[in-house]
User: Fold MBL fold metallo-hydrolase from Pseudoduganella buxea.
Amino acid sequence: MIHATMSTLKISRILHAGYVFDCAGTRIAFDPIFENPFSRNCHAFPDVRFDHALIRRQRFDAVFISHFHDDHCSLDSLDLLDRATPIHLYCQFEPLFAMLRALGFTDVRPLQLDVPVAVGAFTVIPREAMDADVDSMFQVRAAGMNVLNVVDSWIDDGTLAKLAREAPWDMVLWPFQTMREIEVLTPSRAVPAPVELPEEWIDQLKVLNPRYVVPSSCQFQQESWSWYNRAFFPITYRQFRQEVEAALPGARVVRLDPSVSVRLDAASLQADAPLDWVIPVGEQDVDYRYEGNAAPPSTADIARQFGALAPEQAARALDYCRSGLLARYAAMEPPEGYFETPRVWRLTVFDDTGTGTHFHYRLDGVGGIEAIEAIEPGAPLGWTTELPLAKLHGALALGESLTSMYMRINDAVFDAATEAQILDADVVEDPLIRCLFDDAFGAYQAAQLRRLLARP
Assistant:
């Protein structure tokens, strides 16, 4: 084992996109998540638990957060850290900075693309991701090493050219999954995904040509009963390793499970002492299993998996369907594409017994909406949305995100004309998705903050 006194860089996996980098007495963390599950229903895969008492004793010289999504910036996780810890956040929206300060952090700094941040032995440079309004990547230099943490973003050609000029790369932390977040919303209409890496990923890794590649991010599954576990993640660790090492003969693929640490220097990569506050549970050498669209259960069956809402919670969700949704839809920008034509929309919410309640709406194509009792003759059904009532309440009260709501869209057979038109419809233009999530920045963190500040 290489001793810490040598010029080396220690890299430890926390979970998902979370890492600790340690060099010459300086410790920094990236996108730290200390929760299992996180983001409501993301369960660590392989499984782990966290020793929160030990985490509270940890001291980091800085924390870097790549973007505002709740699986990268969770106030419940950050709440365990010393409030003097500098937080460097890439985000275009000021409210999240205000939330971190309201939680008590005294040193919260915005990151700017291509502007280096020096922290002890480290230089961290935020790099532009394909969606620069949301994501960033991190270039990390320390101990003569050059590491690219791609987080879970995509890289455009302009950024790839910049990164190529930063070579040589010692290690790249690469997001190894092609998540089917949209396809699982419409399983009866989605085409099963290919079980190989996108061609552009291989091409980009060839350009970067690192010594080591870590399959990064996407280190979770959904609930044990969830059909998503066979339909959401097409790529296995094994497939990733085979394809990358075949395309890059000089590179080695290194799997880092939660708690696992390695020490990187100019000559080698060696195992090091694991994080003692991330505790593996059960079998760790696990892999994903993909079965196309995986014969999803009905939304009614899924709804039975969730406990009954309190009466006031159920009333809030149902009242939203009766009135709040109408006011929200009418206040938004007029629809585009498929919904520019008048449509009849059916929304169905299922309670914990699997009983569904239908709501019908007439959308006029220019932003107007009207609740109707039933579908009139000559006005064919034009769109359907289903979800558990508990998940609708979660979105309204807890800022729950779309990926955990088990929403089901257009799981119906329409008339021939509608079927032809719906082929080109954009699923995320679904009226409920727009009402819940358009301009709904930071709802998850805001709900966390309210709960944390309400503690005795």
User: Anything to note?
Assistant: The chain has two domains: 9-280, 299-453. Residues 330 and 368 are 5 Å apart (CA to CA). The domain at 299-453 is CATH 3.30.1050 (Nonspecific Lipid-transfer Protein; Chain A).
